[in-house]
Design goal:
Blueprint (H helix, E strand, L loop, with lengths): L12 H15 L3 H6 L1 E10 L8 E2 H14 E13 L3 E12 L4 E14 L5 E10 L1 H23 L1
Pfam family, one: SnoaL_2
Protein name: SnoaL-like domain-containing protein
InterPro entries: NTF2-like_dom_sf (IPR032710), SnoaL-like (IPR037401), TonB_box_CS (IPR010916)
């Protein structure tokens, strides 16, 4: 994650799995690394359910994440708190990025991750529930879609 991340200095193997996912998603913006950080049976849910986003399996999550990566740059994130058990990590984080139209994106997250130890001893994410600032997210996405449509119309004119 970015230099402003307040992750523990000596993260557990389980937290390292989450940090690999976060790095692939935000810093590297690398769908291949993102896919490698999760299990084959990975399940993802954006919450609260009122934002209307469907549950996703690994393939649909990587596709969804790739579309988000394509619309953002300069993602910076801060980890505010981490709570761990043997197979579950809960993270309170916030992030900012610049959209492809130049608009500021900012959000706050509570992420609940379950990890599974692989045959090689490495941990991968097996499921994730990501609570977002639903008001901020829906307002940003509506405005960003409008900005992109306006740019497309201007380019076509």
């Amino acid at each position: 994650m970015s230099g402003s991340t307040d992750a523990p200095q000596n993260p557990s193997p389980q937290l390292q799995a989450f940090l690999r996912w976060a790095d692939a998603m935000t810093v590297k913006q690398d769908p291949v690394a993102l896919a490698a950080s999760v299990t084959e049976d990975f399940q993802y849910q954006s919450l609260p359910k009122s934002i209307g986003l469907p549950a996703r399996d690994k393939a649909s999550f990587v596709e969804y994440a790739s579309s988000l990566m394509a619309m953002m740059s300069d993602f910076k994130s801060d980890i505010h708190e981490v709570i761990e058990t043997d197979d579950t990590i809960t993270v309170h984080a916030s992030g900012q990025a610049t959209s492809i139209t130049g608009a500021l994106y900012a959000n706050e997250y509570i992420i609940i991750v379950h990890v599974a130890k692989q045959a090689d001893g490495e941990y991968k994410l097996s499921s994730m529930k990501e609570f977002v600032d639903s008001k901020g997210m829906t307002e940003f996405m509506a405005a960003e879609t409008k900005r992109q449509q306006e740019r497309a119309a201007q380019a076509a004119a």
